[in-house]
Every structure is written in structure tokens, then in C-alpha cells.
């Protein structure tokens, strides 16, 4: 069993790397999200809900990660779920950019969605940081997965700040003035997680 998994390692590493590289070069061109006329606050809200759900999924998988050789398949799953999260963030960025300016009421809902999202992000990052030792010798000491996690965190951090900017531009004045409070909390959470992986 162990030997069999060991033979799979090169494939595993290649798959992890390829999927990561693809995720950074891919542009979201899902034809189902190309209906420009339907962009609105509700599209953004749905996209934020999707991000939140995906964060919880990822958090659960990382929590269940056993590390070591027996964790190899879970490591692949973590990578796949991270890539999906990046796709979800890109979808939300597009939705926000293509939306009309939010009304006061819409701005309130979107602001509330971000306030609710922040602890979910922070919690998932805390879980990722708490498992760093397991990622360090992720593949039987053959390869560390931590460089990959750090890379993912950089991507997620960048995409989150892009989403924050895109949403900020659509908020009405009152909420636009308050939004940096929560957006700064989100980027601080990423900064400290990335620092833990350096
Ligand atoms: C795009 O949105 C318009 C207006 O809501 C709708 O009539 C149309 O069917 C949509 N097109 C697609 C491809 O979903
Ligand atoms: C949207 O809001 C920004 C300010 O946040 C303003 O500069 C811009 O003109 C507005 N766009 C429309 C179409 O009202
Ligand atoms: C993430 O997982 C931890 C356990 O590792 C749990 O305590 C926390 O509530 C979870 N957070 C979310 C947002 O599901």
C-alpha cells in the first residue's frame, strides 16, 4: 500500500503543480456568467455566498487532513478546493465590476455579506496555519507542500483585495466610507497567514 502510494508521488506532485499553474493563468470565461444585463447586487451577493460555502468546505477538508503519506489524496483535494475558491473569487470580481452602482439598500446587504464573510475567512486561515507542520512534510518528507500553500495564500489574498476594490467602487457613499474597516481586517488576516508560511 505504502509502496504503491510512493510510486504515485511524482504524478501527485506534477498534478498539484499543473493545477496550480493553470489556476493562475486561467481567466474566468464561464459562458453561464456572461449575461452582462443581469449583473447586479444580487449577483454579487450570490457570489459571496458561494465563496463562503467554499471556504467552509476547504476549512473542513484542511481540518480532516491527516498529513503524511496517507494524507496525499486529501492534499490533492485541498488543492482542488483552493483552486475552486480562486475561481469563485474571480467570478465575484467580474460580477462586482459589471454591476451597476449599488443603491443604499443594496450597499447595506453587500456590506453585511462582507462583514459575515470576514470571520469565515479568518477561521479558514487559522486552520491552514495550524496545520503548517503537516504541510511542511506533506509528502513523506519527499516534498514540502508548504510552498504550495503559501503560493495559494498569495493568490487568494490578491483576489480578495481585487474583490474588495471592485465592490467598494459600487457602494453608496456611507458604506464606501465604512467598507475599508472590514476589507483591512481581511487583508490583515491574509498577511498574517502568509507570514506564518514564510
Ligand atoms: C440574459 O438576461 C436577460 C435579461 O434578464 C434574459 O432575458 C436573457 O434570457 C439572459 N440570457 C441568458 C443567456 O441567460
Ligand atoms: C457610480 O459611483 C461612482 C462613485 O462611487 C461615480 O463616480 C460614478 O459616476 C457612478 N456611476 C454611475 C453610472 O452612476
Ligand atoms: C474551521 O475549522 C475549525 C476546526 O479546525 C473550526 O473550529 C471552525 O469553526 C471552522 N470554521 C468555519 C468557518 O467553518
From TrEMBL:
One Pfam family in the UniProt entry: HsbA
Keyword annotations from UniProtKB, A to Z: Signal
Listed InterPro entries: Cell_wall_mannoprotein_1
Signal peptide: 1-26
Entry keyword annotation includes Signal: yes
Keyword S-adenosyl-L-methionine: no
Gene3D superfamilies per the UniProt record, alphabetical: 1.20.1280.140
Entry GO CC: extracellular region
Name of this protein: Antigenic cell wall galactomanno protein
Organism this protein belongs to: Aspergillus saccharolyticus JOP 1030-1
